[in-house]
Design brief:
362 residues, alpha/beta, five-stranded mixed sheet, 13 helices, 18% strand, globular, binds 5'-O-[(R)-(carboxyoxy)(hydroxy)phosphoryl]adenosine, binds zinc ion
Length: 362
């Protein structure tokens, strides 16, 4: 089955064509991030306007690319695509509507089934995709699909959730952030340091520079900021205190701060919180696979640390997708729709900006 996936939940306009939930035939992303760098963050109306401009060319390019990857070059789009999948939430309402209304129109015109997809669950499905060898090299365990039961940490700009998946479509929420998301913490702290949006990659770059300057890398010395809730039994996270700590620290400094070192401190504080809770969840639930997903999963230090921690527990495999599949794109949307195939009438589909991961696969 070949599914066209559409993703417009935030500032990326994305379309992808995926065969049988795993094989990417095309994957096109247009990002309006350049515009948001100027404003230091996303202005929802601007993001939505950009979505409107990009959606048709992006879908068109994804369809053209996918046709080129087929053996029969005379094939028409209408013959190639079996179904349309679209992110319905969570996300920014203006952005979501662009994808949802476009998907509904295509479903109606082409007379193809349409599958609503939860953006957060789609992130997990980045780990079910296979792609060319070049990208494969940069991923962990990309040659094997995750095995159930899966424990997944979904870390994005707006969400931080730890979930258990017994099988496709059976999701149990274990915990999540009580305030800011992990990506949001990176973004807000970066702003305090005068680094550009998005803050995650910016902080990560500065932290790498700091650590590469050291003769002996001593992560243990990076203890400036707290790791909230680390001693408590829940699988909850809290990141809003970090930005206050960073703000107070910056205010208390008389001389110029070492931005590289501070970035390493911030990165380590966020990552430690994620690793501490993930480790205790793995010990408790003993999953066969641990899956790291969402934009923050691009973070090299987080990938390395979790790979090591999970590797020490012999019963569990670590999975993380190549970076371009971790950040927002439409291939995981198509994959999620294939493995959780619940088409509904196009008239029934509507955007839901507040959708949670606990609401399952719809
Ligand atoms: O999943 P995503 O692409 O979009 C949302 O659904 O929110 O995640 C975006 C978030 C941003 O907060 C961004 O700063 C963060 O992912 N991010 C990173 C890195 N790359 C992106 N955070 C830490 N390190 C990175 N390398
Ligand atoms: Zn996302």
């Amino acid at each position: 089955m070949i599914i066209l996936g559409i993703e417009t939940s935030c500032d990326e306009t994305a379309a992808a064509v995926v065969q049988d939930g795993t094989n990417i035939l095309s994957n096109v992303v247009a990002s309006s991030v350049g515009m948001h760098v100027k404003t230091g963050g996303i202005i929802p109306e601007n993001a939505a306007r950009q979505q409107i401009k990009s959606i048709i060319p992006v879908i068109n390019n994804a369809l053209v690319d996918s046709l080129q990857s087929t053996v029969d070059r005379s094939l028409k789009v209408i013959d190639l695509i079996d179904a349309v999948a679209v992110t319905i939430g969570p996300g920014l309402i203006g952005s979501l509507l662009v994808g949802v209304e476009t998907a509904k129109t295509l479903s109606y015109l082409w007379k193809k089934p349409i599958i609503p997809v939860n953006h957060l669950i789609a992130h997990i499905y980045a780990n079910f995709l296979t792609t060319d060898s070049l990208i494969k090299q940069s991923s962990v365990n990309s040659n094997q699909l995750p095995k159930f039961p899966i424990l997944a940490l979904v870390v994005s700009g707006g969400h931080t959730d730890l979930v258990r998946m017994k099988e496709h479509g059976k999701i149990e929420w274990l915990g999540g952030t009580r305030d800011d998301a992990a990506g949001e913490a990176f973004d807000k702290c970066a702003r305090l340091l005068g680094l550009p949006y998005p803050g995650g990659p910016a902080i990560s770059r500065e932290a790498e520079k700091h650590l590469s300057h050291l003769q002996v890398i001593s992560y243990k010395s990076l203890k400036l900021f707290p790791r909230p809730l680390s001693g408590n039994n829940s699988f909850d996270f809290s990141f809003s205190g970090l930005k206050t700590s960073v703000y107070n620290y910056l205010k208390s400094q008389k001389s110029k701060v070492d931005r590289l070192k501070l970035s390493a401190e911030i990165q380590e504080a966020i990552i430690d919180s994620l690793v501490i809770k993930s480790t205790s969840a793995i010990k408790k639930f003993k999953p066969k696979s641990f899956v790291l997903a969402g934009g923050v999963a691009s973070n090299i230090r987080l990938r390395e640390k979790l790979d090591r921690v999970v590797g020490n527990m012999k019963f569990c495999e670590f999975h993380v997708a190549p970076t371009p599949l971790c950040t927002d794109n439409a291939a995981p949307v198509a994959s999620c729709a294939f493995f959780n195939y619940h088409p509904i009438d196009w008239k029934e589909i509507s955007a839901n900006p507040q959708l949670t991961i606990a609401e399952g696969n719809l």
